[in-house]
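Dear colleague,

Following up on Tuesday's group meeting, I ran the structure prediction for the two-component complex that the binding team flagged. I've pasted the input sequences exactly as they went in, so you can double-check that nothing got truncated or mislabelled along the way. The C-alpha cells for the whole assembly follow below. Feel free to forward this to whoever is handling the docking comparison.

Inputs:
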Amino acid sequence: MRTFALLAAIFPLMTLGAEIHSGHASAELLVSSSTFQSSSPVQAAIRLKVDEGWHTYWINPGEGGMKLGAEWVLPEGWSASPLGWPVPIRFKTGDLPGFGYVGEVVIPVTLTPPASATKAATLAVKLDWLTCDDKACISGDAAPSVELKPGPVDATPSAPIIKKSQALVPRPLDGLKLEVSDQGKSLLLKLTAPAGIDPSSLSSFPATAQIVDASAAVVFAKSDGNWTALVPKSEYLEGPPKALELVLSGGGLTHPAIVSWSKK
Amino acid sequence: MKQLFFSAFAGLVALASVHAAEVGAPAPAFTAKDANGKEVSLAALKGKVVVLEWNNFGCPFVVKHYGPGNMQKLQETYTGKGVVWLTVNSANETSGAYLAPAAALEQTAKNSWKGSHYLIDSTGTVGKAYGAKTTPHMFVISKEGVLVYNGALDSKATTKSEDITSSDNYVAKALDATLAGKPVATGKTEPYGCGVKY
C-alpha cells in the first residue's frame, strides 16, 4: 500500500501509462484510445509480465496461490466490467496443483464513462498479485494509471494488443452444455458439444474453485454415446456441488469457450 | 482415499501419498525438537488444547499476519488460556525457508513470536502426517487429542494485512468453542498461503 502512495508521488503526470515492476512481475494499464466520449465504453487491459521462472495465478488459483486482485479507482460515474481472464495453464508449485500464467498475460476490461463525463479522466487500478516458483512466493503490487482526454477516438499502439486479448477470453458457445452429477467421492461431468468439436482433445479447467480436485485432469471420453469425465471432488467441497464453470480450449474450438452448470 | 504408508525399511518413512489428518479423528502422534533442542511430544500434551501453525517467516501470507501482530496476538491470547501453541517449520534443509535452531531463535525473536514451541521439522514428518500444505496452515487439537480444526487461519485468502479485520477468524472460533467444551462449527476449510517447502 505504501507502494501505491509512492508511485502516485513519482508518476503524478503520467498520461500514457508505463510498466511498473514489483515483486516478480511488471504491471501496466493499456487503453485502446487516448481519448474517450461520454457513455462510450473504452477498451482497456491489464498487462502483467511475469519474470522468467515465476508464475502467477488464475481466477481459480488451485491450492495455495492467489488470484490477481484489482480494485479500480475511477472518476465518479465511471464503471469497470469484470476482468476477461484468458485460458490458464496448469502447474505445480512444490506439491500444490495450481492454475495460472507464465510470461505475459493480458486481461481485457471495458471502462465506461457516464453520460456527463466531459473532463479529462484519470483511470487507475490498484493491483496486487502473487508470483511463486518452487522455492518461494513473492507478492507484488502496483497502481498503474492512464489519463484520457475527451474527444474522438485516437487509437494507441495498444489497441491491437487489447483486441487480440479480447479474442482470447473464453465465452459461451451455442450447443455446448455441461451437466454434473454427484457420485460420492467423484463428480461425473457430461458434456454436450456442437458438431466439429472433439471433447476428448479439449483442455478443461475448472473456473469455480473448491468443486473439482485441482490436481485432477478433466478428460472427456465417450461412453454410451455421451462425452463424460469422472473427476475427484475437491476435499473442500461441502455437500453436493451447486455450480461449476469449465473453461475449454483446443479440441477443434475456434475460440476458447466457457460452459456453466448450476443445480436446478 | 489416500493413505499414509510406512515402509519397514531402516526406519525410512515412505510417503506414497498424503492426506490431511481427518477432523473428528485422533490427531496424528508426533515428537519433534524445538528451536531450543527440547523434545515436544503430542502425547505428553494430552489434557491441553494444542494449536499447530505451519510457518515460513519469508512467505507473504505469513508476513500478512505477523506484520501487524495478528498471529502474535492470537498466540498470546490463547496461550494465556492454557493453549499450547506449536509453530512448525517443515522446510527441507535445502530450502531457503529452512531455519536451523539458532536462526529459528533469531527469527522468532525478530518477529516477536509468542507461541509455546517453534518446532523444526526439516524431514517433513510432522507436516506430512498432518497433510500441511501451506504457510500458514492451522490445526486445532482438543484436550482429548482429537483434531477439531484443519484449514486456513481466516476467511480471506489474500496477502493484505488490511483484510484481517474484515475476515472471519476460523482458528479463534475453533479455539473458543473447544475451550468451552463445545463442538467446532467450521472444522475444515481450504488453507491458503505459500506451499510448505518439503
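Strands of chain B lie at 31-34, 39-41, 50-54, 84-89, 117-120, 134-135, 138-141, 147-151, 194-195.

Cheers,
M.
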